[in-house]
Amino acid sequence: MWRYLAGGAAVIALIVAGFMLFSGNARPRPLLPAQPISQAGGAAVPTDPLPDAAPEATAKTREQKRFDRYDKDRDATITREEYLVQRRKAYARLDVDGDGKLSFDEWAVKATTKFADADRDKSGTMTAPEFATTAVKRKGPARVNCPPVQAVAEES
């Protein structure tokens, strides 16, 4: 019988202690005092909610990147020499004999090589799958390794 009385007293003591703990000044206090805006760098905390989607790059941004690739000396202007550097490199790759003149055969060597590489069965014609290998490979946007949509949905 004493066990029941001791257990009941312990339960009542725990309830009173919990009530005192949660109804008192148990709120967390800031570790540092609040600083005025002038000391915090002058920036106010934005009250607007975050946008739903990230902004996309505009065409102007892409065009600026393209401009910067040509503007080697970074003076915000592209000279004729800066513009023609890429063209001269491409021309030099095609001018196999180095005579400064581009013959039709030299010019066509890239196309004929591309055709020969794509024609896997050496039939002299390209099938649709062979032709698909001749498409220009463009650099896509950098991708983050995200799990597939179905895998995320299955875990939830």
From TrEMBL:
<dbReference type="Pfam" id="PF13202">
    <property type="entry name" value="EF-hand_5"/>
</dbReference>
<dbReference type="InterPro" id="IPR002048">
    <property type="entry name" value="EF_hand_dom"/>
</dbReference>
<feature type="region of interest" description="Disordered">
    <location>
        <begin position="33"/>
        <end position="65"/>
    </location>
</feature>
<feature type="domain" description="EF-hand">
    <location>
        <begin position="82"/>
        <end position="117"/>
    </location>
</feature>
<dbReference type="InterPro" id="IPR018247">
    <property type="entry name" value="EF_Hand_1_Ca_BS"/>
</dbReference>
<dbReference type="InterPro" id="IPR011992">
    <property type="entry name" value="EF-hand-dom_pair"/>
</dbReference>
<protein>
    <submittedName>
        <fullName>EF-hand domain-containing protein</fullName>
    </submittedName>
</protein>
